[in-house]
Amino acid sequence: MFKGGNMGKMMKQVQKMQADMAKLQEELEQRMVEVTSGGGAVKVVASGKKEIKEITISPEAVDPEDVDMLQDLILSAVNEALRKAEEMVSTEMQKITGNLNLPPGLL
């Protein structure tokens, strides 16, 4: 199917892509996204590894009479932070793979 040189060239490209992706994954662990909800009442910071690194709650957002609202603000901010982290990772990975639409786990 593959001519000798083409297969070797393709394998080198795949190896380079794997190395680039490993380097990017290390870099993404250090990159953060920040999201707020409730007009800044709740702030969530997530890493490119999709881990929540920080949650800050404004004292004004803490109302013992309305705990449900605070829970909703936190949930909203956490979900948005994880979505933005995923988007950041996806964008960076596409730069490496060139939108090859490779099956998950191939690289």
Give an overview of the whole structure.
This protein is an alpha+beta fold and 107 residues long. It has one domain (4-97): 2-Layer Sandwich (Ybab, Chain: A). It is 54% helix and 17% strand. The chain is built from two helices and three strands, in the order αβββα. Strands 1-2-3 form a three-stranded antiparallel β-sheet. A hairpin with a 4-residue loop joins β1 and β2. α1 packs antiparallel against α2 (67-97). The chain is rod-shaped and about 70 Å long. It starts with a helix and ends in a 10-residue tail after the last helix.
Quick overview:
This protein has 107 residues and is an alpha+beta fold.
Task: Pick out its properties.
single chain, 107 residues, alpha+beta, Ybab, Chain: A, three-stranded antiparallel β-sheet, 2 helices, 3 strands, 54% helix, rod-shaped
